[in-house]
Every structure is written in C-alpha cells, then in structure tokens.
Design a protein that fits this description.
Radius of gyration: 19 Å
Order of helices and strands: HHHH
Distance between the termini: 25 Å
Number of helices: 4
Strand content: under 5%
Oligomer: single chain
Largest sheet: none
Length: 109
C-alpha cells in the first residue's frame, strides 16, 4: 500500500469512527427518557449506558491511534514498528492501517 492509499484508508476510518463517537456522545449527553420504575429495567438501562460509555472510550482510543498513524505517515515512519523498528508488513497495514506494531511485537503485548 503506498502512502496516499494508506492516508486515504486512515482518513476513511477516522471519519467512520468520528461519526460513531459523535452518535454515542450525543446519546450519553442528550438522554431524555425517564428512568424506569422497574428495578430490572433500571439495571438493564445502567448496563446499556456502561456499554455506550465503553464504546465511546474505544472510539476515542481508535481515533488517537489513527492520528498517530497519520503522524507516522507524514514522518515517513508509517511502515516501521514503533517498538523494534522493523517493517510492519503490507498485509498487516492493509488489515489494520492504524497499527504501529509488527506481528512479533504485537504478540508480546
């Protein structure tokens, strides 16, 4: 994958995740439903809120990874593992464009 294709893949993924984070953020901060009087429903609602918060946090982490990948791309370090400095590999970058670790280093984490 050349640098321009990598950049486009990262930007597309960034837009998708940003949209998802905005939707979850909107749900978190604009909840207008009254809290149910039924205890079991309250528990379910709390579990759902926890899931939404987890998805929001996951999206924010992914966005940071994409931003770091775009910075590495600009510096010419995109294809190099941030831990060992070896080549990450085209197949891995195509599958996970925001990765900064080669398979060997990722398997140690």
């Amino acid at each position: 994958m050349n640098a321009e294709a990598a950049k486009q893949a990262l930007l597309v993924k960034q837009a998708e995740i940003t949209s998802r984070v905005e939707r979850t953020h909107k749900h978190i901060h604009h909840r207008e439903e009254p809290v149910s009087a039924d205890f079991s429903e309250q528990v379910t609602e709390m579990e759902n809120e926890e899931i939404i918060h987890a998805l929001d946090e996951e999206g924010r982490v992914e966005l940071k990874q994409i931003q770091r990948a775009l910075q590495r791309l600009e510096k010419g370090e995109y294809e190099l593992c941030s831990t060992c400095g070896k080549d990450i590999g085209q197949q891995r970058l195509e599958a996970i464009p925001e990765t900064e670790l080669c398979i060997a280093c990722a398997s140690k984490v």
